[in-house]
Amino acid sequence: MLGLPYIALALALATSSIEAKITCKCLPGQPCFPSTPVIKSFEKTLSEPLIHPRPMGSVCFPNDPTFNPTACAEVKSKGHNGAFRTSVPEAAQFINWETMINSTAVDQCDPFGDVTDPTNTCFQGRVPWGVVKVKSISDIQKTVKFASKHNLKLIVKNTGDQVFEQICAPRGTTGVTAVTIEPGVQWGRLYKEVADRGQLIVGGIGAGGSIGAGGGWPMGGGHSVLSPFYGLGVNNILEETVVLPSGEHVTANRYTNPDLFWALRGGGGPSFGILTSVTYKTHPAPPVTAAFLVANTTTEEGRTELFKEWVKIHPTLVDSGWAGFWPYSGTQFFLTLMAMGSPPSNPKANATLQGFYDKIATIPGVEIDLEVTRPYTGFQQWYDENFINSQHGIGFNYTIGDFSGVPAAVASVLIPRDTFENDPEELANALLQLDDARPFLVGGGVVSNVAPDAMAVNPAFRGMLSDITIALSWNVTTATPQEVLSVEQTVTEWADGIRAVTKSPGAYVNEAEILVPKFQDAYWGSNYPRLRSIKQKIDPKDLLIVRQGVNSEGWDDEILCKTT
Predict the structure, then answer these.
(1) Residues forming a β-bridge with 293
(2) Which domains does the chain possess?
(3) Do the Cβ atoms of 312 and 421 come closer than 8 Å?
(4) pLDDT tens digits for range 496-538
(5) What is the C-alpha to C-alpha distance for residues 211 and 120, in angstroms, rounded to an integer?
(6) In 3D, which of 446, 436, 378 has the Cα closest to residue 411?
(7) Whole-number Å distance between alpha carbons of 214 and 486
(8) Could you tell me how far CA 434 lies from the centroid of its own chain?
(9) What does R_g of the chain's alpha carbons equal in angstroms?
(10) SS3 302
């Protein structure tokens, strides 16, 4: 069974006033939209009938045909669970991507609001009109061709609850161990499968392990706590298979379709095709050492000095073999760091980190609540205890960091080594403007040892040390369009404050910013012209076009009509 579970056809915007022209996607309710007999004929060619989803919250509205109190109770209990949301076709990680927000209305379906009020309606929002549950490559090919023929908007939803496919033996005579997966496999499961075979794989880190291993994560570049030691996710891809916008199913590697292979490794998904498999390199699994810190600042001066010292030590810490996470919120500052080996294989690792601890312990207004360094049998034990089951976790509780099912505006800033080295105080002051952030120390090391144009992934990754992730939410029940816009603007203003210091627009496309200035420069930099050229050759009809994706500058914000 193929792991990629869902392809959505045409957003359900039957009330749209957009006229169906050759420059616009065709929508339900328009004369150009395929008739019921045509749709039924297409449906008979698929492995399963089309799904016509309503928003997840519809089962909670008494005035909705899908009303079901039992199902509503499940939605309310699991609606913020990332694994649950990935298993159903109508849900997105952040609920605002299920919602149609314009200048006058927020059309949504909030099960946590006053659903008993008869004036409250469950709007379809961005939830698609039809969904194909994929069981074969043929299902993908038929769907792509149908959407292309009828000029429908095509959306790909990865990360379903599907089976793990296979672990490969060493490839040929190269001695490289590898794993081949199909989309829908999640990193939490893949890590375990690989670890059970004594191997390690570079992958995404998230609460509950629900990040998909074979879709947007690798297509966006894929950074990881393991990246400084083994490279970005795209550095570890040996081969991919993909259904092109033409419907053709092809293999891409260094020798076959090399331009496509270049674009798939960081060009953003699903701009160049729908992935049907990814082959990742795996590595021997060494023991690891982890370090945890919880510091509390009781004065603003203490907080400022703590951040200055942290920024200053950043390059040395990376060079001594540490990677990890440094979330902060209000007066609290956390470290969750990892080094390869137990004790660390880099002889400078422990001394460098202890020097930082000793320094901040002398700062007035800084209290060290927790300082722990401990060995783990390997990455898998560290990951399980800190990101899957918090019973044995230390320091920051990442298992409660699952923000699924809430509205969110997000931004990312890749901070170069040069900024840490040359403008530490200015950078510290910019970071202090954020009350809450989830930065990733995932650069340097092997990440920096690859040519910026070796693959499509943002060249800014090659010089960065940390990725700062900023996120703000709003009240999904009461927020007006103007209030939502204000939150989005605030996130961009905060990101702009850091970008003013880095003097670089570099950002991570998998943490896309709604109002990012010049997305081409932010996500792909100098690699964008080549990416766009490949996109135009592979997808001349812009079938697989996404907001802020390659070649989307000629489309409106909803990717419904061309503007140029």
Answers:
(1) 335, 371
(2) 6-157 (no CATH), 288-375+392-522 (3.40.462.20)
(3) no
(4) 999 999 999 999 999 999 999 999 999 999 999 999 999 999 9
(5) 33
(6) 436
(7) 34
(8) 21
(9) 24
(10) helix
